[in-house]
């Protein structure tokens, strides 16, 4: 990406919103194969990793989960583990006491109430300890390819506001606005593309407007675009696929 001095933080949109169809077309070109950056092998490991990712980074979680699942490889094993041992393993992710309680509680509920299988529906998922709608959408969309909604974190909220796709600040209202604008078949991958753009390009501080493939569409843009749309899309693809070179954006 460019080394040019970063522009000031982009402002919330003023005026009409971006053309959502063209936004999705450009994001599909820039991020053709969006992937969840939490390492996982199945719905349960994804669920646990997502719970641990709150106020942490995917990179940190990905260093913790191999140890966690190595010691307790099934929901039953994790549910029965000594709490203090689980806390010690997940300590680096922050809020470790609450997170240990949540992942053990969710695992116990999966064993006792769902036959050892992570539920396939929103209503059952959000009843699990530590699981709110965002986490449930991650599991349903990534593990099961069920489009129950759009994953909304701080990155999605920020990008959607800057594009004028929502004025909401509450995640559930942002999700409602995006679901109303996006075809259902784009809820999973389209939403994830918005998330990745926010994580690596449309940053909270010093957004890389000049390198963004959505520059011409964004009512909050600052500065001057560098190169063609295709060039910016290619640069964004490289940045996302390398996880920013370092990886480590928060999964808030």
Layout of secondary structure:
Blueprint: H1 20-30, H2 43-52, H3 58-71, H4 75-80, H5 83-90, H6 96-114, H7 122-125, H8 133-143, H9 154-162, H10 171-181, H11 187-200, H12 229-241
Helix pairs in contact: 1-12, 2-3, 2-6, 2-8, 5-6, 9-11
Q: What is the ordering of alpha helices and beta strands? A: HHHHHHHHHHHH
Output the CATH homologous superfamily of the largest domain: Helix-hairpin-Helix base-excision DNA repair enzymes (C-terminal)
> Mind summarizing the main beta sheet?
none
CATH class of the largest domain: Mainly Alpha
Strand runs, count: 0
Proportion in β-strands: under 5%
The 3D shape can be described as elongated
Based on the structure given, which CATH architecture of the largest domain is correct? Orthogonal Bundle
Number of helices, where a helix is a run of at least 4 consecutive DSSP H or I residues:
12
Helix content: 40-55%
Low-pLDDT runs: 1-14
Q: What's the domain count?
A: 2
CATH fold description of the largest domain: Endonuclease Iii, domain 2
- Give the end-to-end Cα distance, rounded to a whole number of Å: 24 Å
* Mean pLDDT rating: 92
Estimated structural class = mainly alpha
Radius of gyration: 19 Å
